[in-house]
Design brief:
The chain has about 260 residues and is mainly α. The chain is about 70% helix and about 0% strand. The protein is built from 13 helices and no strands. Helix 9 runs parallel beside helix 12. The protein is globular and about 75 Å long.
Length: about 260
């Protein structure tokens, strides 16, 4: 008598009766949104200690990589200077006005690139270079009011805060030793000059928050009192600013 046929095993709760086929998981992973991947990874880390170890190892590796390199952003200050002083210079005023938004977007793009390229785990050298390049771009904006493009860019930065926001984020990510070092640099004195220059144009008001943070979080009232005294002296600085305009225009970004 023939043996009875072996019954096929019932499908599992997922509705599968056969093992999953071998597939290339990478395209699937790349197609999933980051929040979903984060949830999957978090769930895996809760169940598998080796996943936690791998995450920590990668974090340490990334920090070491960032702190071992220096990123130079100076080319972006040159790019911003060229946009505001060269690219649209030969155009008529009406045409410059039509393209003012394009020019502003280019300058904002330079600032965004700097901010994105300078994470909190970056080396001190990268952070210092980012802050110096942002300062140069800020000065270029302040001294660019000789034509329609520059004038409109200055107007836009009366409400646009990306430059000072980027500076504040970078200094917030610095250690105490790094803050001491950056304040000992020439950059800090030049930052104070930029604060005075920008106040005369009613732009980049957030720079005072950067200074307050660097000085240990003094009250804004205290800063305003000091700046009021500086404002009385800044009339002369305004004249020297005009000289700097011609100097910067003739020698480019080197004088920034």
């Amino acid at each position: 008598m023939a043996a009875p046929p072996i019954k096929r095993r019932r499908a599992d709760t997922a509705g599968r009766s056969e093992p999953l086929p071998v597939v290339d998981h990478l395209p699937i992973i790349e197609s999933l949104p980051v929040p979903i991947l984060r949830d999957i990874l978090q769930a895996a880390a809760k169940k598998h200690p080796d996943v936690v170890v791998r995450i920590l190892d990668e974090k340490i590796r990334l920090e070491r990589t960032e702190r071992s390199k220096t990123v130079d952003f100076d080319y972006l200050s040159k790019s911003a200077w060229k946009v505001l002083n060269v690219t649209y210079r030969k155009l008529k005023g009406s045409h410059q006005y039509d393209l003012a938004g394009e020019a502003e977007s280019s300058v904002v793009g330079c600032i965004e690139t700097i901010s994105e390229g300078c994470p909190d785990i970056a080396s001190y050298e990268t952070k210092a270079n980012a802050l110096e390049t942002l300062r140069k771009i800020g000065k270029t904006i302040c001294l660019s009011g000789n034509d329609v493009i520059g004038h409109e860019t200055i107007k836009s930065f009366q409400s646009e805060t990306i430059l000072e926001d980027s500076m504040l984020r970078i200094v917030n990510g610095m250690t105490d030793d790094e803050l001491d070092d950056i304040m000992a640099e020439e950059w800090y004195d030049k930052l104070l000059e930029l604060v005075d220059l920008s106040k005369g144009l009613d732009i980049m008001e957030g720079l005072s928050d950067v200074v307050a943070f660097l000085q240990g979080g003094e009250s804004e009232n205290g800063d305003d009192d000091d700046d009021g005294e500086d404002g009385d002296e800044s009339g002369g600085d305004g004249d020297s600013g005009d000289e700097n305009i011609s100097e910067d225009a003739s020698e480019g970004w080197v004088q920034a």
